[in-house]
Write a structure and sequence with these properties.
eleven-stranded mixed beta sheet, elongated, about 30% strand, alpha/beta, about 20% helix, about 475 residues
Length: about 475
């Protein structure tokens, strides 16, 4: 087990006889380091203590002893370390295990090298009411092994979560605890509390807003918040990583720019309150912008959900999503994945990009580049039918592309515009020049990589020198 290190105090809680007193002792090498007292609450029969903040390290033991009229009871937990605890949640791309990814055998063979990265997986449980405890656990706190990292398909342990934690450990060099609570085929509404849904207008019978036939997981709102997140609120956490959105490409897509920021804000409030203020009120929240699904689809449900994942900013953090970080994955397509193209097997690059964001946002590593290049200026040269797009980072151009940029043309300000390709004609260190010959009228909008499958594997046109891809964007006003 890993408990959260300082500056937070780790929260320890349990069940007991109503009214009884409980003493919690933390010891190392048979020497008691601290003691905390609590009384078991009558209505919930639970107790909770906050340990004094601890440096990273271990191993420690925790002894909880109940004092009552009956025979005293005690419980001992051993092999406890203090470090950073991260929660990993979402749907099937978070659920995919290490045995399902590329180079699985090599990744599984490395498990014994990381005994101080501990893993835990909640079972797939749903509930119509908020639960105080997990109804079932798939994987108790464990030292990683090839068996428990690759238990099976879509079971445990999450490859993205594991690889992210492994990267963090290699940087931090102290214990990391990973808590997985994810379920494939689920929409964000299932992971959201009623409070969060109400903020986005999903009130009353929220189920009427969903399209159940498109979802393979639980279909009702809040049922996974109730059963798989609410029981964890007492934990002291460093942060959360999230990989979800595929289901919402087909369900309430236009609301995702509200429901996702609302979920983040609500989880932050709830974990801060549940941990008696030990989890930071603005704890870091990382997420994966969706990869690809169908090569030939012409609808824009996936581009829209990618855009809405950023609250329509195109990058993270931003004003509506402070202290967040994003891993762009639209270039990690996998047409021949045995689990379907919606489940690309390259989770190594996903986790690496996520951990860069964590190092910069959660750990404040100065000067670390964790985002791909994003436009800072667009100049339309109508006389020559050119558009100059200037980026804030030095560009690494992998190829010239005829269709990855598009402009929207309108003859008059009030008329709807039509999207046409804007071929790349030249590029410098920071600027890409586009041709807009098909746009004899005014260029009013610009977008990049606005397709479900915009490029081949790791071959989008634009990266930075750190091989981080430029994220998709749409600029709605060029006048």
């Amino acid at each position: 087990m890993v408990l959260q290190k300082k500056p937070a105090g780790a929260v320890v809680w349990g069940y007991g006889e109503a009214g009884a007193h409980v003493t919690v002792s933390l010891s190392k090498d048979s020497k008691v380091i601290m003691k905390k007292m609590a009384q078991v609450e009558g209505h919930s029969e639970t107790w909770k203590v906050v340990l004094a903040p601890m440096d990273h390290g271990g191993p420690y033991s925790v002894i909880a002893e109940q004092h009552s009229r009956e025979k005293p009871k005690n419980l001992t937990l051993r092999d406890i370390y203090f470090g950073d605890v991260w929660l990993c949640s979402g749907q099937s791309n978070m659920e995919m295990t290490v045995s399902q990814i590329i180079n699985a055998s090599a990744e599984l063979s490395k498990a014994p090298l990381y005994p101080y990265v501990r893993v835990f997986t909640a079972s797939l449980i749903q509930s119509e009411v908020e639960l105080q405890d997990l109804a079932k656990i798939d994987l108790q706190w464990s030292i990683p092994t090839a068996e428990n990292l690759g238990h099976g398909s879509f079971s445990y342990f999450s490859a993205v979560c594991w690889l992210f934690g492994r990267h963090l450990y290699e940087t931090l060099r102290y214990p990391v605890g990973l808590v997985e609570s994810s379920w494939g085929g689920t929409c964000i509404e299932a992971w959201s509390s009623g409070r969060a849904l109400q903020e986005c207008g999903l009130t009353g019978d929220a189920g009427r807003f969903l399209l159940p036939t498109l979802l393979s997981g639980p279909k009702m709102p809040s049922v996974l918040w109730n059963a798989m997140i609410h029981p964890l609120l007492n934990m002291s956490l460093t942060g959360v990583i999230w990989y979800q959105g595929e289901s919402n490409a087909f369900t309430n897509t236009d609301l995702y720019n509200c429901t996702f920021p609302a979920l983040i804000a609500d989880w932050r409030r709830a974990f801060h309150a549940g941990s008696d203020g030990q989890t930071q009120p603005l704890f870091p929240f990382g997420f994966v912008q969706l990869s690809t699904f169908r090569r030939q689809r012409r609808d824009d449900c996936f581009p829209c959900i990618r855009w809405h994942q950023t609250a329509d900013y195109g990058y993270a953090p931003n004003k509506r999503m402070p202290n967040t970080f994003m891993a762009v994955a639209l270039d990690l397509c996998d047409e021949h994945s045995p689990y379907g193209s919606i489940h690309p097997r390259d989770k190594q690059n996903v986790a690496y990009r996520l951990h860069l964001g964590a190092r910069a946002v959660a750990y404040g590593e100065k000067g670390l580049v964790f985002q791909g290049p994003y436009p800072t200026k667009v100049v339309v040269d109508g006389a020559r039918a050119l558009v100059n797009v200037t980026y804030g980072q030095e560009l690494l151009l992998l190829l010239m592309h005829d269709r990855v940029f598009e402009v929207c043309c309108s003859r008059r300000a009030q008329e709807p515009c039509q999207w046409v390709p804007a071929p790349m004609v030249s590029a410098s260190s920071h600027t890409v020049t586009l041709s807009s010959p098909g746009c004899r009228a005014a260029v009013s909008r610009l977008r990049y990589a606005w397709a479900e499958w915009p490029c081949e594997y790791r071959m989008c046109p634009l990266y930075n020198k750190h091989l981080l891809p430029a994220p998709p964007f749409v600029i709605d006003s060029l006048h």
